[in-house]
Design goal:
By secondary structure, the chain is mainly alpha-helical. It is 76% helix and 1% strand. Strand 1 and strand 2 form a beta hairpin.
């Protein structure tokens, strides 16, 4: 019942936002939606493992990632208010109605308990985020939007082929609409070749959302032009949607003989993601693209962790959660950086610490945390991942990952320090310094504090939640 109320509320609020002729009313409606979003999260934890509306279940992986989305919703809305403050009423309302749609579609994807329903909501996120990417109505934004829609549609179509293949696997017409729990009882009677084909389709298809090789390019282009608060969602909670889709199929097939095949596919995809991230970050000239390649790196590590198993499973979920907090904060900072420096181009940026010390502190702290330097909680996540790799005896894989991460650390460090301390390489006309209220960095420092605390202590309830998420997976 609670989920039905949520979807109806999101629908009516989006309609009211579109019809609103007053920006203040729109802001009130958005804050009301944020309260409803948080309320659903509380309701989901209170009804954990319960099924509603037949096709949705409040299971641990979905509710955990939904909680991350609800944690981000208020700062996303707040920074969005600032970003679109000067827009006309029509653009202002379209932005916020599309944001409501995106968040509610991601919620549906997190909680879906069947492949078909999951696919529908993932495809719906493509349409809503496309409207947000095109928000600034520039030629570059139009190009990025069409690329996003086209490539994501191809990817989601490939994923749906994997879903349809489930029907052939089980020899019944309704197989694709069965819940994951119902499908799990049929796995061991299936030809392993069919499972391998289905998993490859799903991995390639949903990698458009996870931002993982081989369909990673779509998210990189989207980051360059999307409003910073939307980039914060694309790079975190929307990637989490892609991860969860792949994770659900992986968990479903893990009891079969194709486990080793899936592990190898995930490891190869993850290593290639790290390779691409390292190569392109070394020549990155756009600050937001640099952060996008950093997300590719982190998703690569998550894929590798899933393929390794054992302790690395815990590291994968911990990395997913903490990456969401740090990367969203860095993208929130991009909105402030642009108002101060009037550019996202690396050669035109510089002296940020002198111009806006609070923002520069966020940028440098975020760099330290996202690169997994202690006291970052991401260091603990990567420690579990490497622990799993070493315990499995995959020394060559560990060496390759460390080698690639070294390039990424070098590339991101020198670029961040250049922005903070060096003079711009290109002489550009002075556009005038826009004052930014340091209070805008509050949400970022709160998230950073959480990530730092997680380096020293992981609360028992949080550890138990992650263990519940992975208890169905093989050791």
């Amino acid at each position: 019942m609670g989920l039905l109320i949520y979807f109806f509320s999101a629908f009516f609020l989006s309609i009211l936002v579109i019809l609103s002729r007053n920006k203040s009313l729109t802001q009130v409606l958005m804050l009301l939606f944020a309260c409803i979003q948080i309320g659903l999260t509380i309701y989901a934890w209170a009804n954990i493992e319960q099924t509603e509306l037949t096709y949705f279940t409040f299971n641990y992986p979905g509710v955990l990632l939904h909680s991350v989305l609800s944690l981000l919703i208020i700062p996303v809305i707040y920074h969005g208010f600032i970003y679109v403050a000067e827009d006309d009423n029509r653009k202002f309302n379209i932005y916020h109605a599309s944001l409501i749609a995106l968040v509610s579609f991601m919620t549906g994807a997190y909680l879906a308990n069947s492949m078909t329903v999951l696919w529908i909501f993932v495809e719906a996120t493509t349409l809503s985020v496309a409207a947000l990417i095109y928000h600034d109505r520039t030629e570059i934004a139009l190009e990025a939007t069409w690329k996003y829609v086209f490539i994501c549609s191809i990817g989601i179509a490939i994923a749906y082929l994997g879903i349809l293949f489930l029907g052939f696997i089980y020899g019944r017409e309704d197989a694709a609409s069965l819940s994951f729990e119902e499908l799990s009882g049929l796995i061991k009677r299936v030809n392993p070749l069919y499972l391998k084909i289905a998993f490859l389709f799903v991995l390639v298809g949903f990698s458009t959302k996870m931002g993982l090789f081989p369909m990673h390019t779509v998210t990189i282009d989207a980051h360059s032009v999307a409003p910073p608060p939307i980039s914060a969602l694309i790079s975190t909670t929307l990637m989490n949607v892609g991860f969860l889709a792949i994770f659900r199929v992986y968990a479903l097939f893990s009891s079969s003989t194709v486990l080793d095949f899936m592990n190898n596919a995930l490891i190869i995809s993850g290593v290639l993601s790290l390779l691409i991230s390292a190569g392109y970050m070394l020549k990155a000239k756009h600050i937001k693209r640099m952060l996008a390649y950093s997300s590719l790196e982190n998703m690569g590590l998550v894929a590798i962790a899933l393929g390794i198993g054992a302790q690395a499973y815990f590291g994968a979920f911990l990395l997913i959660v903490l990456h969401s907090l740090v990367k969203s904060s860095l993208f929130f900072q991009m909105g402030q950086l642009h108002r101060v420096l009037h550019t996202f181009k690396l050669d035109e940026a510089g002296n940020y610490f002198n111009l806006y010390p609070s923002g520069a502190l966020v940028l440098i702290t975020g760099m330290i945390l996202i690169l997994a330097f202690p006291p970052s909680g991401i260091f603990i996540a990567e420690f579990f991942i490497f622990k799993g790799i070493i315990f499995k005896g995959k020394w060559m894989l560990a060496i390759i990952i460390i080698f690639l991460l070294s390039f990424i650390i070098y590339a991101m460090s020198i670029r961040t320090m250049h922005i903070a301390y060096s003079n711009p390489r290109d002489n550009i006309p002075d556009a005038g310094l826009m004052k930014v209220n340091p209070i805008e960095t509050l949400s970022q420092f709160i998230f950073f504090t959480i990530v730092i605390v997680m380096c020293f202590v992981q609360p028992q309830f949080f550890t138990e939640i992650i263990n519940r998420c992975i208890n169905m997976l093989p050791n």
